[in-house]
Amino acid sequence: MDHPIKRDHARFRKIVKGKVRDNLRKYVSQGQQIIPKGNDKFTVPMPSIDIPRFKFGDKSEGGTGQGDGQQGDPVDGEPGEGQPGEGEAGEGEGNKELEVEMGVEELAKILGEELELPNIEPKGKQQIASTVDKYTSIGTVGPDSLKHLKRTYKQALKRQMATGIYDPNNPRVIPIRGDYRYRSADTKIEMENSAVVIYMMDVSGSMGEEQKEIVRTESFWINLWLKSQYKDIDIRYIIHDATAKEVEEETFFRTRESGGTLISSALKLCKHIIETDYDPNEWNIYPFHFSDGDNWSADDTKMCLSLLDDHILPASNMFCYGQVESRYGSGQFYKDLNARYHQDHEKVILSKIKNKDAILDSIKEFLGKGK
């Protein structure tokens, strides 16, 4: 039978998950910070949960006291003396925000249920092999740390009953060396799928802080979902204007340049990373490109299409292009991709992201095919 504390904790976790699900669009569109804590754990703010508190009587009044004094006298000091903490009352309620810890699986499940995302079916048959020890049997030898107390007790009881030394009136069960039982590991080879996500972003002058914040938020939730689908995942970041370079995550979201835009520079670097580090037979590859749709020339767009057709698409599970609306962007690259691949293409997924409210819909467009 479960302990009442465990039941209460499970009920609280259920309430928390319901609150996160109900407020998912607020977390995404209003930039509510879900903070990584390491070990695939996250701190989630929960502003609308009231902490239980004690209440005394119908009107939160205390009980009847004893001793000298009149109604209204201070508890300490002489009547009329000012007490520490006196002052003008503030306005409004205090901050009741509560932070709870949730794991990747919990958050990803909420995202998947909200967006009705299918589980990903990894491409290819080749996978990465790993050795796993699973304690699935019981042995008669082993270290003390693996001693199985329940099995040891049962074995000692059976021995004492079989030899007639067990006394029901004095039910002492004392194991001897031959009674000890230990958990035993079976070594198995398990096949694991691995994935790499390659983010590319235009950082030219027309991509401002608002556009980058949209990309940052969307990439957080995309990463969360993919981490729930794959045991091992790499994330690479490419920024570009007229030239491209690989950077760390912090640089990816903070850099802004003033030059023109050559999208082919990012796709060339993406191609190089795939060919150098990720065998398509062993890795599930997800390139994402975010831009406001401007490109330097029609000739560069032709080069982009050639890179996609000949190199990136054959190696990838899918190629996702997210066009973040900007007052300075023409949106032409989306039109060029749509003319070439259309919305029903097997591997090319296109999404227009007008503002933060459109992020969840964009995620569903990218991940909804389960590839």
How would you describe this structure to a colleague?
With 371 residues, the chain is of the alpha/beta class. The chain folds into 3 domains: 1-50 and 96-116, no CATH class; 128-190, no CATH class; 193-367, Rossmann fold. Helices cover 35% and strands 22% of the residues. The strands form 3 sheets. The chain has a 6-stranded mixed beta sheet with strand order 8-7-6-9-10-11, sandwiched between helices. The longest helix is centred in the middle third of the chain and has 21 residues, at 209-229. Residues 92-96 have low confidence and may be disordered.
What is the element layout, followed by pairings?
Blueprint: H1 4-22, H2 24-29, E1 35-38, E2 41-46, E3 98-103, H3 104-115, E4 128-139, H4 149-163, E5 182-192, E6 194-202, H5 209-229, E7 232-240, E8 244-247, H6 249-254, H7 263-277, E9 283-291, H8 298-315, E10 319-324, H9 332-341, E11 348-353, H10 359-367
Parallel strand pairs: 6-7, 6-9, 9-10, 10-11
Antiparallel strand pairs: 1-2, 2-3, 4-5, 7-8
Helix pairs in contact: 3-5, 5-10, 7-8
